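User: quick one, sequence for these tokens?
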């Protein structure tokens, strides 16, 4: 193919931009742990309210579960060579007990400092015409409880910072929730990506929530990001779902989502408390391609006792329909542990417990690379702009000795550093493909479940 000089210049510029971005992405983090969850449960510990297998409360876990028989497609982040359509399945509340839970917990001392956790999740519910026992929550916790707040021993799964999501959107204002241990955080705390959907919209987000006001936080439209679809079609008819039954919009059941948690245990946070450490949770749907940030669990944020500023604490005013949401939240330990979890907050049981589960696949943990010495603004080049960052942060973020680091590395670039390790990784190969394309996204009201 012949390119005219203008097109050749455009392609050359695109190559520079794409490979520069790829180099910076590859240099940004290093994989420190991976588990395809395909059968080997070594290191993982199962926990439930009764702490047994399908015992008093009816919970279990199964590593290496083959989900293809249920019409579930391969998880989005499966590696070449991994066992296909295998993951860990969690079930809970087979016997109709309230607030049941099941989880698998992995302790690992390398999950420390700044790190990122990523896992694929599929939430399945027994979709029948009666719609009884369909609402459960699945999600991810990072870290542990603390000596000051060891957590409720009756609920051993909820430890650390967490984000959980309902199967079918039938939780009413608690379909997408952030947690510290068992405490469900309220949006007025500022830890969610949208601060205010109203006093009645607690403790988290409803599947129907829409925020079009940028001053109120991230622009979110859950029904648009997670549109409805026919369940029977999505699973190829393999689950015997009624042909007219659809997945409710705004909820994340019957689709692969990737949950990502970005942890910084030394982040001072935005709150007034002495605690430090944050965990930012985001979700990407493979089906729609949409990503949203649920929020950032922040150890510096205290439990605000007077949200409506009426002088009373932990109260509800029927006259104004306002309430003080007292969560009981306390700081959590954000290091050393990952928990994959399923919860059922309700009494009713699913019509078929074999179709009510959370499925997890492809757990990755990454740590940031050391980066380029002297590149204080992280733009891939050590230049005069980094001196300004150092000068403005001197005495707080930086010390005098950092000036010598900047001076000794002046002119260095991330691309030059990357040249010492030229082995391509999968994301680099993807970028090459893209370039080829150039040549030729305290009170809750719960419904009946």
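Assistant:
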């Amino acid at each position: 193919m012949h390119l005219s000089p203008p097109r050749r210049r455009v392609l050359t510029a695109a190559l520079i931009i794409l490979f520069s971005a790829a180099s910076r992405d590859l240099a940004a983090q290093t994989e420190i742990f991976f588990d395809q969850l395909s059968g080997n449960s070594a290191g993982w510990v199962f926990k439930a309210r009764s702490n047994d297998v399908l015992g008093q409360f009816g919970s279990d876990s199964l590593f290496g579960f083959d989900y293809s028989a249920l019409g579930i497609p391969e998880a989005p982040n499966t590696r070449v060579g991994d066992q296909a359509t295998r993951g860990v399945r969690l079930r809970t509340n087979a016997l109709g007990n309230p607030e049941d839970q099941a989880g698998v917990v992995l302790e690992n001392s390398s999950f420390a400092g700044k790190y990122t956790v990523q896992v694929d999740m599929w939430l399945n519910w027994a979709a029948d015409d009666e719609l009884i026992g369909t609402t459960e929550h699945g999600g991810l916790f990072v870290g542990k409880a603390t000596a000051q707040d060891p957590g409720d021993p009756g609920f051993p799964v909820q430890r650390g910072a967490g984000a959980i999501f309902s199967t079918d959107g039938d939780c009413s204002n608690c379909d997408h929730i952030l947690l510290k241990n068992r405490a469900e955080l309220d949006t007025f705390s500022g830890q969610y990506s949208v601060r205010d959907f109203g006093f009645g919209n607690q403790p988290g987000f409803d599947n129907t929530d829409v925020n079009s006001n940028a001053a109120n936080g991230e622009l979110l439209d859950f029904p648009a990001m997670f549109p409805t679809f026919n369940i029977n079609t999505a699973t190829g008819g393999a689950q015997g779902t009624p042909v007219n039954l659809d997945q409710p919009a705004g909820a994340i059941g019957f689709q692969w989502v990737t949950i990502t948690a970005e942890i910084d245990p030394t982040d001072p946070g935005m709150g007034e408390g002495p605690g430090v450490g944050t965990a930012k949770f985001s979700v990407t749907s493979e089906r729609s391609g949409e990503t949203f940030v649920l929020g950032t669990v922040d150890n510096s944020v205290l439990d605000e006792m007077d949200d409506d500023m009426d002088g009373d604490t932990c109260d509800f005013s029927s006259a104004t329909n306002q309430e003080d949401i007292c969560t009981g939240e306390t700081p959590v330990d954000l290091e050393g542990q990952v928990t994959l979890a399923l919860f059922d907050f309700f009494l009713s049981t699913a019509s078929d417990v074999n179709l009510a589960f959370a499925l997890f696949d492809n757990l990755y943990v990454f740590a940031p690379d050391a980066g380029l010495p002297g590149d204080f603004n992280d733009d891939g080049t050590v230049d005069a702009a980094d001196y300004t960052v150092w000068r403005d942060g001197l005495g707080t973020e930086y010390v005098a000795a950092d000036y010598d680091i900047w001076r000794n590395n002046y002119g260095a670039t991330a691309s030059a550093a990357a040249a010492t390790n030229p082995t391509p990784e999968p994301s680099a190969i993807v970028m090459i493909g893209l370039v080829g394309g150039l040549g030729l996204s305290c009170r809750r009201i719960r419904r009946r479940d």
